[in-house]
Amino acid sequence: MDVYEAVTSRRAVRGFTGRQVPKEVLERILSAAAWAPSASNLQPWHVYVLTGGPLAELKKRAGERVASGDPWDKPEYEQYPPDLKSPYSERRSAFGEQRYGALGIPRGDLEARQRAASANWDCFGAPTALFCYIDRDMGPAQWSDVGMYLQTVMLLLRAEGMHSCAQMAWAKYHKTVAEALSPPDELILFCGMSIGFEDVTAGDARMGRAPLAETVTFVDGYGSLPPSVAVRPPSPAACPSA
Q1: Pairing verdict, β 128-135 and 46-51
Q2: Average pLDDT of the segment spanning 46-60
Q3: Which residues, in sequence order, are CB contacts of 183 under 8 Å at separation 6+?
Q4: Model confidence pLDDT, tens digit, residues 37-52
Q5: Cβ neighbours of 96 (radius 10 Å)
């Protein structure tokens, strides 16, 4: 799989098989991901990988909190601005419509949406979960570094024939995650990530992307971008349920 195919076939998969991910493959991926860029080579990510019994126990505890209606933990960072402006608010709404529409859940059925969202804390059935922390005193640039690291991990997973789903949802139960991992107090949980082999029967929807002209401005002599340099779409073989 070349880089273009890895990039365009990567997506948030929300349905995994129980097929185990070999530890040596995870070690290979995470060793290579360490080469992700970071300002002044700080490498500000702190990663925990859970499988087997420890992950099952975490899923159980999180599931019990969901079932009991236990409120989310106090947020340790703001996931979205309180007043999300255009065009971001429209994109977020479109995501919800497409995501839940693919599951046959109408817009007004909040209970069904909550049930679907609760699958986050089962890692969508994935046998492996990664949890990424960052030091509390780090700034926006280091959070950006963590994002580049996580993207590198996700692309390397594609190269190994696997998929992933990055989940800020786990930050809502950061205390439960901390009970399982015992991270140092100076770390803050950014997100979790479900990792494994896709369940192609799950019927996952592939989200679209904004046209290039909405997000990119050329300020030189290129002019309009000719079709010959457009990003290649993922091949059916690389993304069978797309």
Answers
A1: antiparallel
A2: 97
A3: 46, 48, 133, 189
A4: 999 999 999 999 999 9
A5: 12
**In sequence order, what E strands does the chain have?**
46-51, 128-135, 163-167, 187-196
**Residue 223: pLDDT band with limits 50, 70, 90:** low
Please give the model's pTM, rounded to 2 decimal places.
Answer: 0.85
Evaluated on CA atoms 176, 69, 15, 190, the torsion sign reads: negative
Residues 6+ apart with CB under 8 A from 63: 118, 121, 122
Exposed / middle / buried, residue 237 (Cβ in 10 Å: 0-12, 13-18, 19+): exposed
Q: Which two tokens stand for residue 1?
A: 């799989």
The structure tokens listed for 78 are 């703001």
Tokens 């570094």, located at residue: 145
The count of residues in the chain is 242
Percent of the chain with pLDDT over 70: 82
Residue matched to tokens 């996700």:
154
Distance CA 236, CA 242 (A): 8
Distance CA 51, CA 53 (A): 7
DSSP 51: E
